[in-house]
Amino acid sequence: MDDEKAAHDSGLNNVATRRRALMLGAIGASAIVSVRPALAQSAASVLNCEIPVPGPHGTGMNIDAYGQLVPRDTPGSFPTSGVKFTGEQVKAAMQGRSLPGTSYDESQAYVNYIRRLQSGQSGFTCYASLQITR
Amino acid sequence: MLLVDALRDPSSTAALDADGWTALLAMARAEQLIGTLARRLSGLPVPTAVSEILEEARVNAEYQRRSALWEADCARRALVDYVGKVVLMKGTAYAAAGLMASEGRHIGDLDIMVARADLPKVEAALLAAGWEWVKDDAYDDAYYRDHMHELPPLIHKERDRMIDVHHTILPPTARPRPDATTMLADAVALEDGLYVFSHADRAIHSATHLLADGELDGGLRNLWDIHCLLTECTQSNFWSELQSRATHHDLWPAVQRAARMAHRLYGTDIPSGWRTKHWRDGYYIRRLTARDAWGRGTRPMLRLLFYVRSHWLRMPPLMLAGHLWVKWRKRP
Amino acid sequence: MYEFRVQVGPAAFRIGSAWKRPVNELAELYREYPTPDIADYSVRLEATSLIRRFIRPSVAINGDYILPDAAPLPLAQALLAAEMGMNLQMALGWRRHLLLHASAVEKDGKALIMTGASGSGKSTLSAMLGCKGWRFMGDEFVLLDLLTGAVVPFPRLISLKNTSIGAMQATALDGRFGPLLRDTPKGEIRHLVPARDAIRAMTQPAQPALLLFPSFGFESAVREIAPSEIFIRLTQASTNYVALGEAGFKTLTRFINTVPARAIDYRKGEEAEALVNQLWDDLS
Amino acid sequence: MVLLIQPLDAMTAIYHRRSGITHIVSEPVPQILHRMGGETLTSDEIVERLRVDFDFEEIDARSLITERMDEMAALGLLVRQHV
Prior knowledge:
The structure holds four protein chains of four kinds.
Chain A: H1 2-14, E1 20-21, E2 32-34, H2 39-46, E3 50-53, E4 62-63, E5 69-70, E6 83-86, H3 87-94, H4 104-115, H5 124-133
Antiparallel strand pairs in A: 3-6, 4-5
Helix pairs in contact in A: 2-5, 3-5
Chain B: H1 2-8, H2 18-30, H3 34-41, H4 48-78, E1 87-88, H5 90-96, E2 110-113, H6 119-128, E3 131-133, H7 138-147, E4 154-156, E5 162-166, H8 180-186, E6 188-189, E7 195-196, H9 199-213, H10 219-231, H11 238-248, H12 252-266, H13 281-288, H14 300-314, H15 317-329
Parallel strand pairs in B: 1-7, 2-5
Antiparallel strand pairs in B: 1-2, 3-4, 4-5, 6-7
Helix pairs in contact in B: 3-4, 4-5, 9-10, 9-11, 9-12, 10-12, 11-12
Chain D: E1 3-7, E2 11-16, E3 21-26, H1 29-36, H2 43-53, E4 54-55, H3 61-74
Antiparallel strand pairs in D: 1-2, 2-3
């Protein structure tokens, strides 16, 4: 406990002894970021992963330019077949290249879909790992 | 089975050779019982390599416990203005109440139960505190709301942790109809203002979770919970209380079978009148112990049978056909 | 199930395979490593279906710890599948040290650690330095002892990718390379067995002395990095920082307080080597 | 001790024992924590205490401090007392 207390006290005293200007931040700007588990980081580099577009939750639906799942007949949307893209392909697409077998606009829509993936959805772990290793 | 023997009688591991240990550890990981095994074996002489693995399991169990209790506290703070009872369920409840079942236990998502009429209020409070829907699928959502005993799962956008909000312990479509109102009314308060089920209801929920709800995946861990919950009761009227409450909730067959299986596999001390023989118990036990030395599931036909049974139990036949149809059609 | 066991640093693996060939390849490449009796982790290379065991065989990576999005690999890349499986067990299971996604080499009992995104060259640099008077400690994971802060070696096979294969073939000894794996998800891959001395010394830790963040493809330069950036980057380079709780925090803060760090940019291996030597000499 | 605190540069790393979560915070979060000690204070009182050691823009000071405290409370680093 002693060294913990020391770490605690020295930490706070260092930032607090001399009189100086204090930054209070700005309204609406966060002063705290919390560290999240980064198992993701390893997923892409450790394992070959893949992302279905769309996952099972969107089978039979189209994807619009914003990456949202929409009914098949929605104008301006792109058909999907649940094709799986590898982490490396998605990574390249996020840097501007098109996903294999897709047009530029189609690729953009698919990438937007991938960006909207949430934890629990198929492909999320893979996507999360790409964000970190980029 | 190696894993069952080690949990039931930790000193039996003294006879294991290197391959036996490797198999035991693989099985325990596959059944998410490695942390429990580590607790059971603490203080016993084991090979150095094994003690390092068990220590790792203890560290991990401690992490899961810390995260689970913190998540419960986050939910408590989000629901501080809600006047009804918020009841913790399963692993988090055992940890919060300091029960034996929580020792080394793997704890995943947070499960809570509230009064059914209050679901919209609770949902709104959680959404306001940073939880979000996991799925944006209209079919699944409607399915949950119409037929399930819980809200569609929510995930916290900062902490990436899931919460399941229940209003009873079984889907309304299942045949037994537990009395959720009584369960809530009898739930006991913890120091921080959250609740856990009464002792008997905890055992009943655990047995229901094992037998009336699932396909027995991870069943050995579930059964270990039941063993602990039944072992930890010391009140003389516990067993009669358990039987009458289980009967009231329409769940006496499940509780009885769970108790029998805990007795047969883990040597749980149950009343002698409960130790009857049932030919079907053998199938359950074979399903629970279907695991090989590499941690792989075995007995595929039996697994399939229990999978179908789990859906059968939850839904009337016509609805089941509709559900499986939709699920099948949605396969990519 | 065919079986192969291997000890890499503090971790013992058991690899099961539905096919014989991967086990033979592993036994050949890991011939200088000890064989453990009790395994910390099991990895299973299984057929994705009964048909895929025989026709266009496809390897699913399973084991004690698995990832839901894992993609299967063709049987010709089974060696890669085994390596991925072992790495995954470490990434998801290891709790005995603070695990950083980084490479490390040692000289005079002190360790140089290199970390960065894939493509930064950290793996190739560690392999190259391992042929030039440094002891190779690992190209994928660096393990920091929770009590002493020392770097514990994890010298698994070095996984060379694409252009680094040719570079290392010119540097390293013949007879220490695995088969060339073409068209893998990461391009061409060829495994290199670390130097015999590095394998023999795989139980000997070293105190960390320098942390580098290399970036490949930029004009040669050395930059300072703010401690808060180092802290955040290392938490994101660690797969078990959060799970270790207080021990992770203390180990990481001690590391940041005691180990100087720099970012280096380079375009050629020789440039990187010169920068490393210069920074290393400046330490003393 | 509830928190382990490690100043880094303009940012400070804080390990929160109970949750096991590490927060990277900027000013004035560590200063607020230090001035509070273990006491229960209003945001006005905290502004007063900070004023003893620091110079800062008086405009919006109270609302900025309150916003930081809300943020800390949302993460469970502080507990809001209802009066």
